[in-house]
Structures are given as structure tokens and as C-alpha cells.
Amino acid sequence: MKRILSALAVSTIAGTATLFAGVLPAAAEGLKIGFLATLSGPPAVLGQHMRDGFLLAVEQADGKLGGVETEVIVVDDELKPDAALTKVQGLIERDKVDMLAGVVFSNVMMAVYKPIIQSETIFVGANAGPSPIAGKGCSPYFFSAAYQNDQNHEVMGRYAANQGYEKVVVMAPNYQAGKDAIAGFKRHYTGTIVEEIYTKLGQLDFSAELARISEEKPNALFTFMPGGMGVNLVKQYDQSGLKESIPFLSTFTVDETTLPATKDMGVGLYSGAEWAADLDTAANKKFVADFEAAYGYAPSLYAAQGYDAARLIGGAVEMNGGIEDKAALIKALEAAPFESVRGDFSFNTNHFPIQDFYLVKAVKSGEGKYTTSIVEKVFDDFGDAYAGSCKM
Amino acid sequence: MSFTLLAVQTLNGLQLGILLFLIAAGLTLVFGVMDFINLAHGVQYMLGAYLAVAAFQFTGGFWSALPLALLAALACGLLLEVLVFRRLYDRDHLDQVLATFGVIIFLNELVKVVWGAAPLSVPLPLYLDWSVPLTDTLSYPVYRIALIVAGLLVAVLLYGLVTRTRIGMLVRAGASDAEMVAALGVNIRRLFMLVFGFGAMLAGFAGILAAPIFSVEPGMGDNLLILAFVVIVIGGIGSIRGAFVSALIIGLVDTLGRSFATDIARLALPPSAANDVGPALASMLIYILMAVVLFVRPSGLFPVSSK
């Protein structure tokens, strides 16, 4: 009996293993940026891309964003809202950072949002864009260099409607972001959703769901399966033969963070995104080439967002001629005085970008190399659905 | 809900069950024979998968990578036993939990340092990279059927080993009363090491088999470890037969629950509520099952008589 009790106790605490890691270089006069990213646990690869993109831009500016000596303190949020909160408070109070940036996941963003804006620290987001921050809860101190969470899903919904798909099955993990993804998809989709499948977060085997999908015979599948879940899904989608008959529309599932694992199995699958490796701008060409040269792997949209976040800061600091006058710096950020790798980029009234969104497709772009490639533009100069309810 | 769907789901359930059995078999032996809680057992599954990736890159083929990765998994298990676990057998469960939890953290980070944080994969092996068409759109990968067959073979082999050989007899005796076995002049340390290495190799084998269908990533063993504990608690700690039966039950209940819970909930609830209740219920099912089994048979389905 004692053994059974031990086993029970064990099974409840197991699976929470994570680590914390931090980088603390010597202090310097100038611009001090606290960069928060998820760098441990299975989704660490997203944080790694975002951080590498950000640091690349700092390095390209010779360590001086906007001409001011820049120190970046990288902190791992461990994908735990409470840990992130403690670390952000440390960055603000102990390290006295001038700005904060980064954040991959929306639950972490929501946890650290209040203390950041209450301390009146400027924050430049490089991924997470939850709807409360874009709408009623918006703040002059918050800027997103990425997107609002719903938008990429809206792209797929609009595309499915444009294609005339009458029957679609939607599938997402059973948590807030999964439900937001499906809500976002529905906003512009005009056909019928014949089945909504919610899977367990972290699910490994999708064979049960794939059998259901084939049973429904939809015109397309829409799914949001970030990280390792997406890798499993893509592999099994290919192995089940569904890839040949049912178009795979996804968001944050097929990109440069998962393609190294899925390889040919991911090729031909669609995704909604605001960036792709072959986006035809001079800034993007330089970014992709320099990133691959510096880190030896292909950048993803997370890397592009991190890169743009740093260059946005650089552009604004340069325009403002320093960081002393915070109100003026916010004005400078609002003007988005930088050349985004995405081309068109301006800020909406809620400090989220107005930008173009694309249907992208995974392609094999070289020997053993896989990237995303633009198929068509779905939205032009597209703002989010929440800007109207933001009063600054 | 057609017949093919049910048949496919049953196959899927069996396949999850087999994978769970391979992990739980080692866990239940180590727990049963040595009274040692090894949280790091899930990490050995992950190591197996990573070793399969490494061996595949080295040899270029799944079939030649398989024995290489198996041997490496065995070596890793023995190394861990000698370096860490050997020192913990006489300590109480809390110490064992703490130390093996540390091993999880260490190895999860180590694979990230060596192979990077991005998920990796192994292609389907030659001769098994085709599918059986089931309906006009859906086909079933032959590899998954092969996985079930391989697992069944291992189960038969293991059953023979435990019930028909001298080593197996010692293992069973050790599960009932380790001190008495030692008093009879058996080198219990060596027996422990053997059981441990074998358990690690089985978990590694599960990882190798999983590599072509699942993504290979840090922390991939943590979820399965929890399921494996559920399996050995339901099956009866120390019982291979119990692990086998309960692994298949858990695999089937989990898979069938996931695919049909929403439909069943829809019979009683409006669709939107059913969409919320179904998945929540599906992920609870195996724990409810465990609670029921523990209520009816507190020592599991196939209890090993213990002190």
C-alpha cells in the first residue's frame, strides 16, 4: 500500500521539470533591455529563434541600438507565469532596465503585463499578442512588433472562405490559445464547420482524431498545433495518407521551427503568417542571409519578429536622439521609424502593427533545407479586431 | 461512428498500450523488485529516441540503427545505475524521488545541449514505409501494425523470461522478498543491476520504436512517465502480466475515450457544452479508472504478494 501511495504522489508531481537560466553581463551605461523568452522545456525552440533574431539585430548595430550602447539581459520565463512575474520584477527593480522585450506565450504576457505598465516601462513584444492587451486593456507603454493573436487564424479563415470550402474540420488543443485560434478562424470563414475537435495539450498521438477527420470528408482541415504537437500531427497526417486528399490549413504548426523535424512530410502544407523566408524585401534578404550565417539554421517568423523588435527600438532611439525623454520615445516608437523585414509596417491606435498577411506553404528550398514560401497575399494592411475598443 | 472508425481506434489504442507496456515493464520490475522509485524512467525512453536519431544519422538506415541504439540505451541505463541509482537503493522513497527528478532535469537539458531544442525525427524504416488503405481517404501505416507485433513479441519473450528461467525466478522472488533472496546467497546487487539495465533497455526500445511516428524532443518522456505510473498502479506493482493487461486497458480507454467522449457527451448535453465536457472527460477517464481499480482492488489487478 505504501508503494502505491508513493507511486500516486510521484505521478502527480512528475512532469514539471524545468530549469532556469539567465545571462547577466556586466552593467553598462546606456540602453538596458530585459529580454524575456521561453528557453526551457519543449517550446524552448520558439524562444531561441526569437532571442537569436533580437540579438542579431543588436549585433548588426555594433551593440548600439540607435547609436546608444545596448546591453541585453536575456531571461528565461520557463513558460511559468509566476516565475516570469518574479523575474520581470527583478529586471525592473534590481537591474533597472530601460525597456523590456520578447515574450513568446500569451499566458506569460498576461502575467507580466500589469507590473510592466504600472512601472511605466516600455515593452516591445516579439510574439504574444493576447486580445485583452489589444482591446480594453491597451497601454501606451506596450508595443507589439509581431501580430495580434487572432490575425493569423483569421488569414486561414478568409483563405478557406475564398477557396469556397464548404465543409471544414477545425482542431486545436483544449486551452485558451486553442479556443482563440478557432474563434479567429471562424471570424472570416463563411462555410460550415462540421466538427470541432479539442485535443489534450501536449498530445502525442493524433491517430484517433485523424480517423474522425477522414470520416467527415471535409474540404479542408484547419489546425493550430504549436511545437512538438505539430510535428507529431504533421508526421501522422502524412503517414495516414490524408495529406493527399484533405488540404492542411494551419497556424504556428508548419514553420522553420518544426520543418527540420518533419522535413518532406511537412512540404506542401499551408500556414497563415505575416512573414516568410522568401518575402521580397531588401531587409528580409539581408536578415535571412545574415541569420543563417550567424546561427547555422533557417530563421522562422519568431526570429523575424525578434529581429524587427530590436530594429524598431533602434530606429525609435535614433529618431528620438536617446532614451531620456520617455514620452518622446513613445511618440518615436509610434512612428515605427525602421525598415521592417515584412515591408509594410505601421502602428495601429492600440500599438499593434497594421501589416500584410499571407498564405504560406512549406517548401524544400535546398538540399536538406526547408522553409516557408509565400503563395498569395490574403490581407493587405490589416489591423486587428480589437483596436476599436482601445482608449489610450 | 462506423465500424472502420471503431476498428482503427482499437488498433490505435493497442499501439499506445504496447508503447506504454514497454515503458511500464521496466518501471514495474524496478519498483517491484528493488522497491526503488525511478522517475528517470521516462527520460530513458527519451534517450532511446535520441539514440535512434543519432544511430540513424551514423548508419543511414533504421535497421542498422536499431541494434546500435538498443545497445547504447542499455549502456546508458547501466551507466546511470552505477553512477547514481546504486547509491539510492537503501534510501527512502523521498530521496529517490528527489534524486531521480534531478536526473530528469539533467538529461532533458543534456539532450538540448547535444541535439538542440528543436524537435527531431527519424524516417519510417525501409520495407515498413507503406500504408494499408482503409477507406478512400484514410490509410493505416504498416509501421504502426509492426509496432504492435514487436511489442507483443517482447511481451511473450518477457513472460517466458520471468516465468520459465532461473533469472526470472530470482526476479519474482526478489519482488516478494528481496532480503530473503539475498540471505539465500544470491548476489542481489548484480540482480538489481541486471533488472535495471534491462528495464532501461525496454524503455529505450519504446523510444526507438516511437521515433519514426512521434517528434523526438526534450521532455518527451515526462508525459508517458505519468501514464506508466498509472499503468503499474492499476496492474499491480512488480507484475509483468499486470503491466501488460493494464497498459492495453489504458491505451484503449484513453484512445477510445478521446474519440468518442464528445459524441457521448452530445447525447446528454447541447453541442457547445459537449465540446467542453467531452475533451475534459476524455483526459480524466484513465484517472477515474485508476481510482475505481484502487477502490475495488487496492493492490492492483494482479498483485504480487509482498511483505
Any idea what the CATH superfamily of the largest domain in chain A is called? Response regulator
Question: Treating each run of at least 4 consecutive H or I residues as one helix, how many helices of chain B?
Answer: 11
How can the largest sheet of chain A be summarized? 8 strands, mixed
From the spread of the alpha carbons, the general shape of chain B counts as globular
Largest sheet of chain B: 2 strands, antiparallel
Order of helices and strands of chain B: HHHHEEHHHHHHH
User: Whole-number average pLDDT of chain B?
Assistant: 87
The tally of domains of chain B stands at 1
Number of helices of chain A: 14
Percentage beta strand of chain B: under 5%
Question: For the terminal residues of chain A, how far apart are their CA atoms?
Answer: 61 Å
The CATH class of chain B:
Mainly Alpha
Strand order across the biggest sheet of chain B?
1-2
Q: Which whole number gives the mean pLDDT of chain A? A: 89
Helix content percent band of chain B:
over 70%
What does this structure look like?
The complex is a heterodimer of chains A (392) and B (307). Chain A has 392 residues and is α/β, with parallel strands linked by helices. Chain A folds into two domains: 31-147 and 280-347, Response regulator (Rossmann fold, 3-Layer(aba) Sandwich), CATH 3.40.50; 151-273 and 357-382, Response regulator (Rossmann fold, 3-Layer(aba) Sandwich), CATH 3.40.50. Chain A has helices at residues 2-13, 44-60, 81-93, 106-118, 131-134, 151-162, 176-188, 207-216, 228-239, 242-245, 259-262, 282-295, 301-320, 326-334; strands at 31-37, 64-65, 68-76, 99-102, 122-125, 142-144, 167-173, 192-199, 220-224, 248-251, 270-273, 346-347, 353-366, 369-382. In chain A, strands 7, 8, 9, 10, 11, 12, 13 and 14 form an eight-stranded mixed sheet that branches. Chain A has a six-stranded mixed sheet with strand order 2-3-1-4-5-6, sandwiched between helices. In chain A, α2 packs parallel to α13 (301-320) and α13 packs across α14 (326-334). The radius of gyration of chain A is 21 Å and the shape is globular. Chain B has one domain: ABC transporter involved in vitamin B12 uptake, BtuC. Chain B has helices at 3-34, 41-59, 62-83, 93-115, 142-164, 166-176, 178-183, 188-210, 220-235, 240-268, 271-296, and strands at residues 131-133, 139-141. Chain B has a two-stranded antiparallel sheet with strand order 1-2. In chain B, β1 and β2 (139-141) form a beta hairpin. Chains A and B meet through α1, α2, β8, α8 and α9 of A and α1, α4, β2, α9 and α10 of B.
